[in-house]
Design a protein that fits this description.
There is one protein chain. With 367 residues, the protein is an alpha/beta fold. The protein has 3 domains: 115 residues, Helix Hairpins; 123 residues, 3-Layer(aba) Sandwich (Rossmann fold), CATH 3.40.50; 77 residues, Alpha-Beta Plaits (2-Layer Sandwich). The protein has 12 helices and 11 strands. The protein is elongated. The relative contact order is 0.06. The N terminus is likely disordered.
Length: 367
């Protein structure tokens, strides 16, 4: 029974169903439910009244069961007549014909109203989805807040990663700038309601990109991080900062990772000016060149106690991966001492062609 409930819950957890329910709640939020309830009860009462009249007019039932069976058949006839599939030969008296005509007349009106409502709902859903007014309905996805050249390259990189993840873009625009394959939410990144439509509370991570290179864009990014932390503190936030002086402000807003583009570029250019070819190598690694995807992975238990040299050898032999660093307690050990030994909780940053049997690191909210 528990397994059945789990399967039923998973069926109703589909993104398409979640989006339809979101639009249905949005459309019915301002509707007078009492009016429609009274209308529905009136229609049901009308069908039962017509069935009772036909039972009385057409006389007793010919077969077993008497009046009760006749009334049940009349109710069935009334419902099918309203739906447009009734048996015209069921009534044989002039009064019965009048009741039948009234049911057909009301049936056409009811079917037209239902059809119009369904068509209107479908058209509204399609229009709202195309305009970014829907709700993503995803889980364990990545929310990209804001749009710039970094966001464009980031989405392209995520789309080609082996660890495939759904992407939701939140940006104030009339149409989706990211194209197909990315769910678009038109809205304000600092708005809690718009972030909820992007499914921020069920997201794996959020990436915040400034609209331009100004200090004002950084301030807006800080507000975005604060909005995310207020409703989804467990979501990992990765922020692109324009000004290095704003890093402390991002930390106070509890951003998990802060990338200062200008600092990275300037340092890489400085090292490349001294040592030719470094820029091409680093770019190839971080951009997923041939056989050089960058991964942060969980270390198997049997690797505990190994030295860095032994770990590097095992990574090459077991996974065709090159070890770059070992992370411990939030600090990266890129070139540790010879007596450095792996401990429980350590993870590794490696360069490999694919994940293979390695498991990607899953951080807990406390990490």
């Amino acid at each position: 029974m528990a397994r059945l409930r789990t399967r039923i819950g998973a069926a109703f957890d589909l993104p398409v169903l979640i989006r339809l329910l979101f639009h249905l709640r949005r459309m019915t939020g301002n509707i007078d439910r009492g009016f429609f309830l009274r209308l529905s009860l009136g229609l049901v009462g009308f069908v039962f009244a017509a069935a009772l009249l036909v039972t009385v007019i057409e006389g007793p039932h010919d077969s077993m069961g008497g009046a009760a069976s006749k009334f049940a058949d009349s109710v069935n006839w009334g419902v099918t007549t309203v739906l447009g599939a009734g048996d015209a030969s069921y009534v044989k008296t002039p009064a019965g014909y009048v009741v039948s005509w009234l049911l057909v007349l009301f049936g056409v009106a009811i079917v037209a109203a239902i059809t119009g409502a369904l068509v209107g709902f479908v058209i509204d859903v399609l229009l709202k989805e195309g305009q970014g007014m829907g709700a993503a309905g995803y889980r364990d996805h990545i929310v990209v807040c804001g749009w710039n050249s970094t966001a464009r390259e980031l989405i392209a990189e995520l789309g080609g990663d082996e660890y495939a993840t759904r992407i939701v873009l939140v940006h104030q625009a009339d149409k989706n700038p990211a194209g197909t394959g990315v769910y678009f939410v038109s809205g304000d990144c600092t708005s809690v309601d718009d972030l909820r439509r992007a499914g921020i509370e069920e997201a794996m991570a959020a990436v915040v990109c400034p609209a331009d290179a100004s200090n004002e864009a950084d301030m807006r990014s800080i507000l975005t991080v604060m909005a995310i932390e207020s409703i989804a503190p467990q979501v990992r936030t990765v922020v692109e900062a324009n000004n290095p002086n704003h890093v402390e402000h991002f930390k106070r807003a509890h951003a998990d990772e802060i990338v200062v583009s200008s600092r990275l570029v300037s340092r890489l250019m400085a090292r490349s000016s001294l040592y030719p070819g470094l820029a091409e190598i680093v770019t190839d690694i971080v951009s997923g060149g041939e056989g050089s995807e960058l991964y942060r992975v969980t270390l198997p238990e049997e690797y505990l106690g190994l030295s860095v040299d032994q770990l590097s050898e095992r990574m090459r032999a077991d996974h065709s991966a090159t070890l770059l660093a070992v992370s411990r307690g939030g600090s990266a050990h890129i070139n540790p001492d010879p007596d450095f030994r792996l401990q429980h909780g350590d993870d590794a940053v490696v360069v490999a062609e694919s994940l293979g049997t390695l498991a990607p690191l899953q951080l807990l909210p406390a990490d």
